[in-house]
Structures are given as C-alpha cells and as structure tokens.
What does this fold into?
Amino acid sequence: MLKRTTVLLSLLLAGPPVLSPAQAPPELREAMRARLEAVWKKDAVTWARLTADEFTIVVPEGRLMNKAERLAALKAEKAEPVHALQHEQIRVYGETVLRRFVDGNEWVLEVWVRQNGEWRVVAAQVNVVKP
It folds into this structure.
C-alpha cells in the first residue's frame, strides 16, 4: 500500500509531460505563432485579440504592466524579423497552458487559457538569460 501511494504521489507531483510545440493542439499552436509574430511585427490588433483583458506581464526590469500599458509599449517598439525560438516547452493543464521559451536573450513564460473557445494569454513574465 505504501509503495502504491508513493508511486501515485510521484506521478501527481511530476505534473503533465512537457510537449513539443508540434504536440500542442493545432488551434493553440496557431494562436501562439500568431501572437509571437504580432510581438515581432508590432501588430497591435492581432496581439490585442490574442491577449486577455486581464493580462499582466512582469518585464525584465521588474515592472508589472497591464494590457493597456504593454499595448502602448508594443506600438512604440521597432519591428523585428521573425526568428526561431529556443528551449520551447509546453505543459497543458486542461484549459490552461504554460509555455516557456527563450527569445533572443530573454526567457519568456506565458500562461494561456481558453476563454469562450479562444486561446488567449492572461499572464507573462520575461527574464534576462544569464550565462
């Protein structure tokens, strides 16, 4: 009994497996691709559509921003070319998904949720990669 309990507890604590981007549901993959390209291309309309109204982000400087603040900052930034990500990981928890990746010199953690049938980011945190 103790061994079975230990095994069950280990499985529960381990969480869901890490998925490759190709294993994520197609509609989620498309939303993730479109939102990331919107960040790079400074496409405010697409970014806003794929970002929840209650969105918050902690930027590398440690400041908390809401959706309106981040959208204003996005509009002021210079567009950059679409490029590959590194170390992308996706974990699915039902209607909630955690996505972690490296974009240039920054670690990004996004929390995606399905709202009214659509995938949107509700929170993000960005940290500088340390060598």
Remarks:
- The domain at 18-128 is CATH 3.10.450.50 (Nuclear Transport Factor 2; Chain: A,).
- Confidence is low (pLDDT under 50) at residues 5-13.
